[in-house]
Amino acid sequence: MEHNETQNSLSLADLWSIFADHWIIIIAAALLAFAAVTSYTVLTYQPEYTSTATVYILRKDDEGGSAINSSDFSLALSTVNDCREMLTSHLVLDEVIERLGMPIKYEELKNMISVKNPTSTRFLEVTVRAPSPSDAKIIVDELCKIGAEVIMEVLGINQVNLVDEGTYSEVPANSRITPYSFVAALLAAALVYGIYIMLFVLDDKIKSPDDVEKFLGLTVLGLIPNASGEDDTRGKKYKYGKYYKYQKYGKYRS
Predict the structure, then answer these.
(1) Residues 141, 66 share a domain
(2) What would the pLDDT profile of 107-158 be if each residue is shown by its tens digit?
(3) 81: helix, coil or strand?
């Protein structure tokens, strides 16, 4: 008797059927991963506060005139990026550490600072992230003060104005629930779902009359329920045609 070697193929109906049959386990895995990552985040959570100050870069002529011409404006714009780099340089940050007596190193302080330049402006928004709101404000104010002095001295900018001093906020900038919790939940659900898909593809057991025709190339002439009347939880026993008897694990015997 010729054996049909046709393998399982996936369709959208199959994918939905797999999910519908195992959605409880898939959702449970996602919730478990979310809870695990969130619990770890909460246990290791350290609030961080931010303070933002704004400085304005202005270059006037050497004679101290008050008028601002186009060349002054263009030159100031062209040096904005230089000023941004200068604010996080060793020259500035080492001086901030020394004046404030901070027990940290240059790299640690640099990682606490971000500097943004709104498009086509000469404003620099300097933000410092620290364990307390007061520390963040003190550091950003001192940074802007020392940075202005160094920029004027090194880059030849005649004036750097402090537009806004550092803000003070008692609301933490970071949250207890991070995006990693949702990513972990999604990955866990996808992993479990993928395992069930793989098991479906690799499963070559015969479970229905359609599988008999698909894998064995036989035509099912009729179905006779199990004469014993036992209700098998993994599948009922049937007799197919005259020669083959279907058992609950997909095996056949004559």
Answers:
(1) yes
(2) 999 999 999 988 778 899 999 999 999 999 999 999 999 999 998 888 877 7
(3) helix
